[in-house]
Amino acid sequence: xxxxxxxxxxxxxxxxxxxxxxxxxxxxxxxxxxxxxxxxxxxxxxxxxxxxxxxxxxxxxxxxxxxxxxxxxxxxxxxxxxxxxxxxxxxxxxxxxxxxxxxxxxxxxxxxxxxxxxxxxxxxxxxxxxxxxxxxxxxxxxxxxxxxx
Length: 149
Known about the structure:
The structure is a single chain. It contains six helices and six strands; from the N terminus they run E-H-E-H-H-E-H-E-H-H-E-E. It is α/β, with parallel strands linked by helices. It has one domain (2-23, 60-147): Rossmann fold (3-Layer(aba) Sandwich). Strands 2-3-1-4-5-6 form a six-stranded mixed beta sheet, with helices on both faces. A hairpin with a 4-residue loop joins strand 5 and strand 6. Helix 2 packs antiparallel against helix 3 and helix 5 (94-102) runs antiparallel to helix 6. The longest helix is centred in the middle third of the chain and has 17 residues, at 43-59. The protein starts with a strand and ends with a strand.
């Protein structure tokens, strides 16, 4: 299984769909939109997270998509899914994310995107991944930035 991480409106979902057009993709965004806003970390958000965890366990998707901007979030998913192999970080300038966000059906607040970008925690092989890839969603280029020997 692959995790796809990046800021909202960075191109995570588009990349996931191009990588696995006929495979199961689970996007946390769809649950957050259905059950509570990104900034609203109340009971509805926690309920959405529980539903997300249950869906992961039930369908065992090929790709899981979310911002995964914190190591804590990545570790939480890894504890549920010990068979995660790789992570793809979708790189996109914040200005482009903010512009794309304005064109989305369900916008994330600009403040939330800015806060996520400032709180982004580096991703390491020590988190258990076999490989870390960087995908530039503006240039449409992917490269491996670290791999287990």
